[in-house]
Amino acid sequence: MKRVHNFSAGPAALPTEVLEIVKDELLDYQKTGTSIMEKSHRGKEYSEVDAQAKERLTRILGLKDDFHIMFLQGGASAQFMQVPMNFLGEGETADYINTGVWSKKAIKEAKLFGNVHVPFSDESEQFSHIPDDSELQLSENPRYVHFTSNNTIYGTQFQAEPKSNGAPLVCDASSDFLSREIDIDRYGVIYAGAQKNLGPSGVTVVIVRKDLLNTADKTGIPTILDYHTHAERIFNTPPTFAVYMVNLVLQWFEEKGGISYFKKLNDQKTELLYGSIDSDDFYRGTARSDSRSKMNVTFRLPSEELESRFLKEAGENGMVALKGHRSVGGIRASIYNACPLGSVKALTDFMKHFRDKNG
Ligand SMILES: Cc1ncc(COP(=O)(O)O)c(C=O)c1O
Predict the structure, then answer these.
(1) Which residue, 292, 261, 257, 225, is CA-closest to 74?
(2) Which superfamily is assigned to 258-358 in CATH?
């Protein structure tokens, strides 16, 4: 068996240790004679998986009893619609900070339900930077302030939560969930598709503050899309296998040392990689340096021809999925929690070699 260095932006690399457990348990889950996939979502085993995953998230994020944790379907894209459907009433305004394609998609959906105010957009600068608080022109009294904490396509990331003038933050954390500490008290909703930092695709973690949900009293919301439906119980059949894997990833995450461990590891990985990019002008980082992401590192080479060759030779050397998003081109190395330091070392060694040969 040969595993490569996988820099996929998502679905992304999973911890090998977790995949080994999944392999071992696939046919016979904990001596029950069936896989976890073949069990009722109301049965003892799956109920334990669901409860464990929620307990782990509660511990990791330092939640008290003040948040509901839900495992939903439809990806982060469904949350673009579900958040305003639940929280934004006619005549109300929500603020949406526009830092890229995913923010824009969220804005488009929110406009179906209420007023949207955009306190900042750097679209004219190709989404290369994250605003500091002085650049945010918030509305008078927003229902919530929505932001995309990490912009997977452009390699930019909020270095801290944006100001919100007391309004709850709603965060699309799909591509940096559990990669660093957050100021949980400021959040009303956090949502994240699992397929980057948390597990396989198919499940979206949605964390909603209870007191905020108590203020969501809109009528006419279809049952399945109403957060109240999922807040206290498993309503319908969840993606059981995906949640099972999320639970294993969370177990691995805690055993490794939790957020402080991964924060440090992510710092080490990005120091190496950005250090390599910045060491001369052969490689050029595309995000402004004060906005650089610790999850998706985006850069260009002197020509598209060299970029094609870089990708080809990286592949021949066991490094895959380094092609930048189709809308921006160039190179993107996605180095989520499960990407080991060794993979980043292999990449920076290759980058040096490639520059020496072609620079
Ligand atoms: C930041 C961010 N938000 C939303 C999405 C869309 O997620 P999904 O495909 O789970 O709907 C992505 C996908 O890459 C993303 O990176």
Answers:
(1) 225
(2) Aspartate Aminotransferase, domain 1 (3.90.1150.10)
Ligand 1 centre distance from Cα of residue 158 (Å):
16
Cα gap 67→209, rounded to integer Å: 4
User: Which has the closest alpha carbon to 297: 318, 319, 276?
Assistant: 276
DSSP structure string for 26-45: SSSGGGSSS-GGGS-TTSHH
Closest-lying ligand 1 atom to the alpha carbon of residue 173: 1
**CATH 3.90.1150.10-classified regions of the chain:** 258-358
According to the 3-state scheme, what is the secondary structure of 313-324? HHHHCCEECCEC
Tell me whether residue 337 is exposed, middle or buried, using C-beta atoms within 10 angstroms of its C-beta: 0 to 12, 13 to 18, 19 or more.
buried
Can you spell out the DSSP letters for 135-157? G----SS-S-EEEESEETTTTEE
Please count the other Cβ atoms lying within 10 Å of the Cβ belonging to residue 26: 12
Handedness of CA 93, 76, 268, 187 (dihedral sign): positive
> Distance from the CA of 62 to the center of ligand 1, in angstroms?
25
Q: Domain 16-256 carries which CATH code? A: 3.40.640.10
Rounded to whole angstroms, the Cα distance separating 339 from 344 reads 8
Model pTM score: 0.98
- Omega of the bond leading into 340 within 30 degrees of 0 (cis): no
291-323 confidence digits (pLDDT tens): 999 999 999 999 999 999 999 999 999 999 999
- Is 252 among the residues known to form the active site? no
Q: How far is the CA of 102 from the centre of ligand 1 (A)?
A: 7
CA distance 152 to 302: 23
Which two tokens mark 175? 């591509």
DSSP 93-138: EEEE-B-SHHHHHHHHHHTTTSEEE-S-B-GGGTT-----GGG---
Helical spans, DSSP H, in 187-340 = 210-214, 227-231, 240-256, 258-278, 304-316
Catalytic residue selected from 39, 54, 196, 294:
196
- Please tell me the residue having the least CA distance from ligand 1 atom 10: 75
pLDDT in tens, 52-74: 999 999 999 999 899 999 999 99
